[in-house]
Design goal:
The complex is a heterotrimer. Chain B is an alpha+beta fold. Chain B contains 19 helices and 25 strands. In chain B, helix 18 runs antiparallel to helix 19. Chain B is globular. Chain C starts with a helix and ends in a 12-residue tail after the last helix. Classes of the chains: A mainly alpha, B alpha+beta, C mainly alpha.
Chain lengths: ~300, ~550, ~300
């Protein structure tokens, strides 16, 4: 069979394990010891907390119009200004975190579960099953994920839930391929073969040897995919195929806001900053995690 | 001798360069400067620009919101396609931009028979299509026959001709149209230079399936090329000598080319106008108008909305909405003036009845008997029907919450959100469903809705038949079923006496308001913004008129 | 070598075959009757019947696919429901514009990536390095459409340097390709930096420095040349990936390419056109990948061309 991974997938090439990684409490201390990981993790946790406690933190109701303050600029009352319906932008951004958390967990959840499953099956079972599944993944990989997501939304119809599902599905092939690569390197390591030769059951090997050793790599990929999922959802919402008003989703807020570039610059600026900061933090964390778990990269 | 000639050549050359520089300055320099230069001309004031002599040549570029599907006027259902198409063709009749009177255009004269069922048109002689074939009565007959043939699939053009019994070409220039029954709005249809223009049968035969990308008409502009995804370019028809009587220019158009650029994105369209990529932006939103009014480089044309503005339909077969009290409460829950303020920046009018004030037959009395914003009254109505507010502030009856679904398109999302917030105050919760307009019409047509937004571009009160007739109303989404109303609307369609016709529609409006079939909201103004390098653009109440336009170079 | 090329092409064909099944099935995944959805509410039973037969939806799935694939092989991707034009014509009309945009985008990505990567390597572990790598990460963190809006606001509307929706000339290409370039530069920046760091520590660079050669000459002549190869491969693959990146940006910049075509097709529910675009993009992507793989194999003899499964 033809090798895809080794030839042109630099990320995978760098993350294939040469030796098993011990997952346990030491992981957290490792993460904590890494300055980049620690800072980005703190930032992400901070943002998540703001999202969770949005009702207590947000100064206004995110969907309540204030007709006496349409498109009013940043002020004491409305710190980041208001939109065309007089809704407080800051409050909408804060509630938007909840939407983003939902996107990150559901879209990436779909990718994670299906991708890990397919990747592990392919690596562990190998042979025909591997071949067929990987060919199917190749087919799906041949389409840019946003195009695949667009096609799925075209079928399901535009809504935030459908957009999340579409993006989740569209990312499965990439994720499965990476997981498979990582798992293959574990499989080929001496100790798995040793267990097998002494007659350990498949379930035991999978649970006790395979999963823990693939887990760290999968964790890195998941983090990286979260950033992509947030960006893609925002993009779909931006062209009107994702979140529907009055949901305070950042991409759709940008879509509404850009119509008021001349009257209200803040509407086209702040939601974009929010997306960028969150995705940047997630990517930064992913990068740091990759350094931690992949000594070969340093 | 030779030297003198040389000298004069040089001075001519210098003059030419000077003029070139001058024109370059004036074309990108600010207009205010130019006006001050001409300030010495007394008594002209703002009319200075209009009075300058038209220049031939150049190109006018217009931004279109979308790419037309086809320029075959029979196969398209897109209003945008007819905007482009109307430049390629011309109509039998023309509507006077000021008086709304109907005058002949491609026809030299026309007659309507006593019973109103036979229309006879005498065509001008010597008119030719762009491909050289002559415009005869037969050509008109063939065009209309093609539009009426169901195989053509002429959705709009076919429906405009739905009252036609037969079209005959009596002789080369005499066209006779027999109607099934007298039709008051039919003459206005015949003034549609877009959908009902004559098409060259020779071209249709020659291009077959591709005719839509190679249209041939009789109009002032000839089709030049279609850059997929980008633009349609028309070039002037030098042979065109028959503009509508109200134009000053009696010849072919001044500019060489007319270009329509497809710019889907609204904000990009404005940027294109600002940066000079297009000269004319159609349908600029009210919120952006002040900026253009304040800018000397642009001229704002303010037109009336053709047809109905925004209204909210209610499904009267719905379990909850079949109760007129709820429909009335919804009418009273919405403060329309806030919508006009927030969405239209005040550039619109609140509407109280089913017709807006620029319709024939509009009943001014509706401002008195229409529903007024009154939350307390609305809540009382709901309570009298047995609803009461629950802990969440939502009206509840027998354990069921009063929640409704509102269908909207992306364009009216903000309106939906405001209404959602307003009805919440009287305890009606609304969930917004945003979709493509085709899907919305389909769902509303199938009765799969509670509430739905609609607007409609058609300015004859006959539209009420389409919207409320229990059996003939193709758009009777509300499921109105009122025999008295049906009868009034049927009579209105065939009544040729204008006074009587008006009475019929006033009676109909009263019934519709009483039954509260829908919530009329507002009519907006329509704004087109024109770069002042384009001169002489006129307008009727509802359309821009380009034939006197010319462009600075 | 020959065996490698043949094998690579064969597996590409298998994938394209799969894509054809996917694009074929697309229409069958639509909940409800696709014909009804396409024709809308005013369709007569006769019209529905005719379109059903025309699309062959009354036949068994396998037969339908047989028709579909044999049409596709003859270059017939169906007819657009909206314009009545052949889908392939519509796509081929737009494709050159997308290629143009992607090519300009990748050029900017190379310029940005090399500059940022070299800067970071030159000032390794300093503030400049961190800034440069932070900028590189911005490329994968900033929403492309937002960057596009910002650029339009500043350079078109405020400064008036670049036109909007003027056409598809060189000046129109600048803003969209800068946007694409920033988005696609991340990986090039990183590879350049890592490669440079490695090369700059090599003996021959030290020798060159000891000889007192100008630092710029060292970097451009000696170092950059040696980090080029892996980057060239990545660039090849980025071109394919950029096809996806252009989809949304085309919309914002009003660029008449495949992206605007696809989004337009989705909003007007023009399913033959959606199918065609998906199939076409897949084929292009697979073809580019094959070409990159093969050319890479030819450029670098160290690449292992054996057909063994990696492990």
């Amino acid at each position: 069979m033809v090798k895809y991974g080794k030839v042109y997938r630099p990320i995978q090439a760098r993350t294939i394990h040469k030796s098993p990684v011990n997952v346990g409490t030491s992981v957290f201390s490792k993460i904590y010891q890494n300055k980049r990981a620690r800072y980005s993790l703190f930032l992400i946790l901070f943002i998540i907390l703001i999202g969770i406690f949005a009702p207590f933190i947000a100064p206004h109701d995110p969907i309540e119009p204030h007709y006496d303050a349409l498109l009013s600029g940043p002020s004491k009352e409305y710190i980041l200004g208001t939109d065309a319906l007089g809704r407080d932008l800051l409050s909408r951004l804060i509630y938007g975190i909840q939407v983003t958390i939902k996107v990150a967990s559901i879209a990436v959840g779909i990718t994670f579960i299906a991708g890990t499953f397919i990747g592990l099956i392919c690596a562990y079972v190998g042979g025909v099953v591997d071949n067929i599944l990987m060919r199917i993944m190749d087919v799906l990989l041949a389409l840019p994920s946003i195009v695949l997501a667009l096609a799925i939304v075209a079928i399901l119809g535009p809504s935030l839930n459908n957009a999340m599902i579409a993006i989740g599905i569209a990312s499965i092939p990439g994720f499965a391929r990476l997981t498979r690569g990582a798992a293959l390197s574990v499989k080929s390591s001496g100790y798995v073969e040793a267990s097998r030769s002494i007659g350990s059951s498949h379930a035991w090997i999978l649970r006790r040897q395979f999963l823990p050793n693939v887990a760290s790599t999968v964790l890195v990929y998941t983090t990286i995919f979260i950033g992509g999922a947030i960006l893609d959802t925002a993009a779909l919402s931006f062209i009107g195929l994702g979140a529907q008003p009055p949901t305070p989703e950042w991409g759709s807020m940008l879509n509404e806001g850009r119509n008021y570039i001349y009257q209200a610059w803040w509407l086209a600026i702040f939601p974009g900053i929010a997306i960028t900061v969150v995705v940047f933090a997630v990517n930064y964390l992913g990068d740091a995690l990759r350094d931690i778990f992949d000594p070969a990269n340093n | 001798m030779k030297k003198v000639w040389n000298k004069s050549l040089i001075s001519v050359g210098l003059l030419a360069i000077f003029l070139l520089i001058l024109s370059a300055c004036s074309s990108d320099g600010s207009t205010s400067e130019k006006e001050s230069e001409k300030g010495g001309d007394p008594g002209k004031g703002e009319e200075v620009q209009e009075s300058t002599t038209p220049v031939t040549g150049g190109k006018i570029s217009i931004g279109l919101n979308a790419e037309p599907d086809t320029l075959d006027m029979h196969k398209t259902g897109m209003a945008l396609a007819s905007i482009v198409g109307s430049n390629l063709g011309a109509a039998l009749l023309a509507v006077d931009p000021e008086t709304q009177d109907i005058k002949p255009h491609m026809a030299e004269s026309y007659e309507v028979s006593e019973d109103g069922k036979t229309l006879t048109f005498k065509l001008h002689s010597g008119i030719t299509f762009h491909d050289g074939t002559a415009l005869t009565a037969q050509a008109y007959k063939d065009t209309f026959d093609r539009a009426m043939n169901p195989d053509t699939g002429a959705v709009v053009a076919g429906s405009l001709l739905s009252d036609v019994q037969e079209v005959t070409a009596q002789d080369e220039l005499t066209l006779v149209i027999e109607l099934k029954k007298p039709s008051a709005p039919f003459l206005v249809f015949l003034a549609s230079g877009g959908y009902l223009q004559p098409l060259s049968m020779a071209a249709i035969e020659q291009h077959g399936e591709n005719y839509g990308k190679n249209p041939v008409g009789v109009g002032p502009w000839k089709f030049n090329k279609w850059e997929t995804g980008q633009s349609i370019l028309l070039s002037k028809n030098e042979a065109y000598k028959w503009p509508q009587y109200y134009y000053e220019n009696r010849e072919s158009p001044y500019p060489d080319e007319l270009e329509f650029k497809f710019i889907t994105d609204y904000q990009t369209k404005l940027a294109a106008l600002d940066t000079g990529s297009i000269d004319i932006a159609l349908y600029v939103e009210a919120k952006d108008i002040q900026r253009y009014r304040d800018n000397d480089k642009f001229e704002v044309k303010e037109l009336e909305r053709q047809g109905l503005g925004l209204l909210m339909e209610m499904n009267t077969e719905n379990e909850k909405l079949q109760d007129p009290n709820i429909r009335k409460a919804l009418n009273m829950a919405i403060d329309k003036s806030i919508l006009v303020q927030a969405i239209l920046a005040g550039e619109g009018t609140v509407v109280d009845g089913p017709l807006s004030s620029n319709f024939f037959g509009y009943d001014p009395e509706v401002e008195n008997y229409g529903y007024k914003y009154n939350q307390d009254e609305a809540i009382k109505l709901l309570e009298s029907s047995g609803w009461s507010k629950n802990g969440k502030g939502i009206m509840e009856k027998n354990g069921k919450e009063l929640s409704l679904e509102l269908l909207t398109t992306a364009a009216t999302n903000q309106q939906a959100q405001i209404i959602q917030a307003m009805t919440k105050e009287i305890g009606i919760s609304i969930e917004i469903q945003s979709m493509e307009s085709a899907t919305l019409i389909e769902k509303a047509g199938n009765g799969e809705f509670d509430l739905a937004f609609l607007s409609y571009a058609y300015s004859d009160p006959d539209i009420l038949l389409l919207l409320f007739h229990s059996s003939q109303g193709a758009l009777n989404h509300t499921r109105a079923n009122n025999p008295e109303l049906d009868a009034l609307l049927e009579q209105g369609r065939t009544e040729m006496d204008l006074e009587k016709r008006k009475e019929l529609y006033i009676a109909a409006q009263k019934i519709i308001v009483k039954e509260a079939y829908w919530v009329p909201i507002y009519t907006e103004k329509v704004f087109h913004v024109i770069n002042k390098r384009v001169h002489g653009v006129k307008n009727s109440a509802t359309d821009l008129l380009f034939h006197d336009s010319w462009v600075e170079q | 070598m020959g065996q490698f090329i043949v094998g690579r092409i064969l597996s590409g064909i298998v994938v394209i075959f799969g894509i054809s099944i996917l694009s074929f099935l697309l229409i069958h995944f639509i909940p409800g009757d696709p014909v009804r959805i396409m024709l809308g509410q005013n369709a007569t039973p006769d019209q529905i019947e005719r379109l059903t037969v025309y699309l062959g939806l009354d036949q068994p799935l396998l037969v339908q696919y047989g028709h579909y694939i044999s049409n596709v092989l003859q270059g017939d991707l169906g007819t657009s429901l909206k314009t009545g034009q052949p889908v392939l014509t519509e796509i081929l009309d737009r494709f050159p514009q997308t290629v143009k945009l992607a090519a300009a985008g990748i050029s900017f990505a190379i310029v940005i990536g090399f500059t940022v990567g070299t800067l970071a390597a030159k000032f390794k572990d300093t503030f400049i390095d961190r800034m440069a790598m932070g900028f590189a990460m911005l490329g994968v963190s900033i929403p492309g459409f937002w960057l596009a809006i910002l650029l339009i606001m500043v350079f078109s509307v405020k400064l008036g340097w670049f036109p909007i929706a003027e056409g598809t000339g060189l000046r129109d290409l600048v803003l969209p390709s800068i946007t694409l370039g920033v988005l696609a530069s991340t990986i090039i920046s990183r590879l350049t930096r890592n490669g440079m760091v490695e090369v700059l520590s090599k003996d021959y660079i030290r020798t060159a420095r000891a000889k007192g050669l100008d630092e710029r000459v060292i970097i451009v002549r000696h170092a950059l040349r040696n980090v080029l190869l892996p980057i060239v491969t990545v660039i090849g693959l980025q071109i394919a990936g950029l096809l996806g990146g252009t989809v949304i940006l085309e919309q914002v910049f009003n660029w008449p390419g495949l992206g605007t075509l696809a989004i337009g097709a989705i909003s007007s529910r023009d399913f033959p056109l959606i199918q065609g675009t998906v199939l076409f993009m897949g084929i292009v992507y697979v073809s580019i990948n094959i070409l990159v793989d093969i050319s890479y194999g030819m450029i670098d003899p160290r690449v292992d061309l054996s057909m063994k499964e990696e492990s």
